Fold each of these.
Amino acid sequence: MATSPKRIALGVTGGIAAYKAAELLRLLQDQGHEVQVIMTESAQRFIAPLTFAALSGRRVITDMFEDQPECEREDDSIEHISVAQRIDALVIAPATANTLAKLAHGIADDFLTVLALATRAPLIVAPAMNVNMWEHAATRANVATLKARGVRIIQPDTGILACGMTGAGRLADVGVIADAVLAELARQQDLRGEIFLITAGPTREPVDPVRYLGNRSSGKMGFALAEAAHRRGARVLTVSGPAAIEPPSGVETVRVETTDQMAEAVLDRLSEATAIVMAAAVADYQAVEVARSKIKKEQGALTLMLEPTRDILGEITVRHQPNQLLVGFAAETDDLLENARAKLRSKRLDLVVANNVTQEGAGFDVDTNIATLVFADGDYKALPRMSKLELAHCVLDELVKLRLNRT
Ligand code: CTP
């Protein structure tokens, strides 16, 4: 996968596999990329910085407080901040259990972990350790935290380990690690020129001045899509209901409350968009009459007359232009594929992201999702459980392909 030359930071931490990072460095440089190596203190006990300095032709960063030579400074900024802003990807290989723990908890006590916190560039981590350490509940939890945050973890290989034990924990093949880094770089600007209109969160339908009908949507999926599309170079506009989290930075957000307001905001901006992704869990019903005063309990049992809300996607279907990519979500509890295909046909969608919301680790208010992508040609792709950010990237990968087929 060829990309224009990029700047990669390669973090090396203290493990027997540290020497393999030299081969990774070479593979990345062979693709024309510039690599800045950063070593932790314990990494330097396994391999000398000189090896990486000679291979990369650059000073290896080994110390948080070391003075950066004048000739290497690109500006007056502090080194970890300037590196953080300059790089297109940060790969840590090998990553020890200790480094994984620090990354998961935001501990920043050396150059590498400070850099990991300060950069907005994607992070790819290739762990290597003893099998018991890899399988320990603490490491499992740290890996899950990092994955949920969108960090790309390269699963270690299974085999004989340096400690003599057999099991998972060997650093993945460096070719596999290099491919993951290159794939991440290739994604970076592949949505440049696209304008995404993304809905997120729930909508709320008032019942009286204090109560509403709503659902458990957090907005995480819609915002993950917004973040991923923005990172890949698209201009992104989100229309969000009352979400539990803040929208990602760099993304324009219109806040709404009701389905009607969401419909108006979406239709208002529809013509600007080149791709529309309807990730919001729109309330399907609204009260026929909204009480002006708070409904008091004394009246006993309460019957609410509800009517369907506006079908936003249905309104888009009749207005959208053929070159606008249209993606819907289908939150189902039964007959996932059949229901998703029916929605795809009736709304003339390019893609439906379908999930069974009763499955553990899928659906509302969790960091992960288990989705099946259903395409207009009848084909489908069942994806494993993954973070919402990873799922967002998978959806965007498909949209990139659909766009290529259309032009
Ligand atoms: N949607 C919409 N307007 C609504 C309801 C849903 O635009 N009033 C959109 C959602 O954002 C989602 C898609 O339609 O992209 C499907 O939503 P879902 O609730 O799964 O399905 P519905 O079409 O509402 O059908 P049903 O509830 O019968 O499954």
Amino acid sequence: MDTEIVQAADLKKVDPVFGQLSFNDHEQIVFCHDKDTGLKAIIGIHNTVLGPALGGTRMWNYDNEWEALNDVLRLSRGMTFKSAITGLNLGGGKAVIIGDAKTQKTPELMRKFGEFVNSLGGKYITAEDVGMETSDMDIVHEVTSHVTGISESKGGSGNPSPITAFGVFMGMKAAVNYKFGSQTMEGKKVLVQGVGHVGASLVEHLYKEGAQILISDINQEKLLELSKKYQATIVPGDEIFNQELDVYAPCALGATINDSTVNTIKTKVIAGAANNQLADEKYHGKILMERGIAYAPDFLINAGGIINVYAELEGYGKDEILQKTKNIYNTTLDIFNYAEENQITTHQAALNKAQERIDNQKLASKK
Ligand code: NAD
């Protein structure tokens, strides 16, 4: 009896879904379960005012379901703002599959997941994310048309990473222009943390423009390969925040700007591909602003990937993808100026502009 009372009281304290800290007026949250394949997934549809909610599916071995729910709520909200600020007619959504992508992902599980996506009738459109490959999206495509990021041979747009890297490069150049009044990256000291799919491609752009390149990764082989190819200096992970830099480009993990780094980092600009670079958007964003560090909002400058998959829905080609991605330069510069005029952080400025577009569309559709 006592246990029942305690449980009831605890349940009242934290409502399981709408009471979550990451809940942000999400429109729909779908819990998907299939006993035969072992599928446990959550689809988060944050907002569909501008269009169908598009966002990748992440497969991750979450410690518990709260973590998975928190992730899908957070990530789907991020997609709403990413698409809105990029000018795409898309809403924000995301899905998570609970499990180890290396050992628990099977074609049957992916097909079942595709059936759940299909049951939403196009309100949510899926794509690749961490733990997913193009081949997984091809399997999902067998049971639903509401999927992007399928292989080029099947009419898809292929690997988005080079486009993402190009967009990050454009955003970085805008930030450098804003901060230094410089049109080129020539001679700028840039540290790229994480030289995976996006980071390596970013390094190539920087090399071609004559930047002074520093690289850091946990993959030693990759570091040696790139340092040779692009005359880049290797920096151990624990020395990143001691370097005097012009640009810090986080392209590995999120939350690298946190309580222990935000006051010590020695850079003029932060512009990278990683999602959720600020551990606390408001708090750390404000400290960067006070320190005069120009932060290019991650969800704005890493939008090349979504521009790339959006092409599959709209049927436009590579030229238009590149054109739209190049425009990240103009949007980033606008955001820096708008933030300065309004004395707000660049992160908040980008959120405001994205929200403005959603609100205008909402108003227009009511007329
Ligand atoms: P990736 O897995 O190919 O590369 C990540 C790299 O980071 C790897 O080389 C890995 O060894 C390295 N790394 C991991 N932990 C590290 C650590 N502690 N310190 C230093 N390096 C570490 O991933 P990616 O596709 O290049 O994406 C990079 C980042 O950009 C991710 O945060 C991803 O969410 C984000 N992003 C990617 C895309 C895209 O199109 N691929 C689009 C938007 C955002």
